[in-house]
Structures are given as C-alpha cells and as structure tokens.
Amino acid sequence: MTQTISATLPASTVYVSGTVNDVAVTWTNVGGEIWEAVADRAEDDIYVVALTIVSASGQSTSTSFTLYYGLLNLITDRTQADVDYAARLNAAGWDGMTEDERTAWTLGLKGTYDYTDLNRVGNAVAYVAGRLTGAGYALNVNPKIDWTEDDTQRAADMASYLADISAIRNALIVPPAIPEVPDDMEGLTYEEANDIERILLAVDALITNMINAYFYSNEIVCGEV
Fold first, then answer.
1. Which of 133, 139, 131, 87 is nearest to 109 (CA)?
2. Backbone angles phi, psi at 67, to 5 degrees
3. In whole angstroms, what is the distance from residue 134 CA to residue 80 CA?
4. Residues 153-171: pLDDT tens digits?
5. Average pLDDT over residues 167-177
6. Residue 220 lies in a domain
7. Are 18 and 111 found together in one domain?
8. Which of 83, 213, 29 is nearest to 135 (CA)?
9. CATH number for the domain including 7?
10. Residue 91 pLDDT > 50, yes or no?
C-alpha cells in the first residue's frame, strides 16, 4: 500500500529529492508550489520527510518535517509540570541533559509548542474538515502542514491557524463545554494549547455521533426493519 505525500515548497523550486521515512522517493510538481511523492504506507500514518530543494538560481537547501495523515494525533493533557520540565531541559542545554532527557527532547516535549505541533494540528484540521465536508457541511480551511524548524511563524500565519480552528468549531452547534478558540497565539498557555486540540477531538466525536444517529434512523429502523 502507498500514501501520496504533498508539500508546499517555494515558488522558485525546480527540483526536489529526498526521503520519506528514510526511503528515497520521487517528487513531482503537480502545479504551482505543490509537490507530491508516492511513499510506502506507514502503519501509523506518520511520515518523516527529508528534502533537498534546488531553486531556479541553482541554490540547494535541505529541510525536514513530519506529516500526519488520516488520524487525530492530538494532545489534550498538558500540565504545568510538562512546561516546567521543558524549561528545565532548555536551561540545561544538550550537554547538560541525560541520555533519557535527550531522547525526550528529540521526540518532542508536551511542555513546548513548535513547528511539529503546528503540523500535527494542521493535519487534524484537514482530517476533521474532510469529515465535515463528507457529512454535507461546507467550510473554508487552509491548514499548513509542512512547517519546518527554520520557518518563521508570522502573526498572519497564526491568525490563519486559529481561524481554521474556529471554522471547525463553528461548523456545528457545539455544547457549551467545548472550549473557545484562543484569541491569539502570543503567550500561548498549556491550557490554551490543550483547548485547541480538545475542540478538534470534540467536533470529530460530534460528527461520529451524528453519522451514527443518521444511520440508525434511516438505514436500520426505517429502511430495513
């Protein structure tokens, strides 16, 4: 089985090479800034992409990022202890960490919020939006899912990020218990980070309940019994 991987690359890109989950793949420009590759399907639908990008001027740059497809890989249980732990490791620096701490730092810490979280949540937005569209709800989202460590998150980018979360939340009539979307990403707290991902999980659950209720009413009770 395979998975088509998609990435938005600079408009000046003329050639791309690289790997997906450490396996070399062929990248093709499919229009504008969109490049695609067909990779082996990963059991967890997580794809680590490493690219060498060549521009029209001949400049070569390397980048890497992780893409998540077809799943809700969300975090809703961050605590102040997670934030404190991340701050302690940051203060210690790489040389001051134990081997276990270095592993934790490399895999990503719940007490931080970086480009990997933006990609993970962006993929969840795309997934939930697809389910909403399939259920007949039209909405306009444009999640970016290929952030890299070198990217700068501009205020406009973060406003768009939160606007997508709002669009997902507002697509259905949600219970009052579902959190509100943060006003902005500046000074994001661990509670707000949890809330962003709780919204996506809650809406996804509402979609499932809605589909199940429709199935029960229209297929089993009315149509078959």
1. 87
2. -115, 145
3. 38
4. 999 999 999 999 999 999 9
5. 91
6. no
7. no
8. 213
9. 2.60.40.1220
10. yes
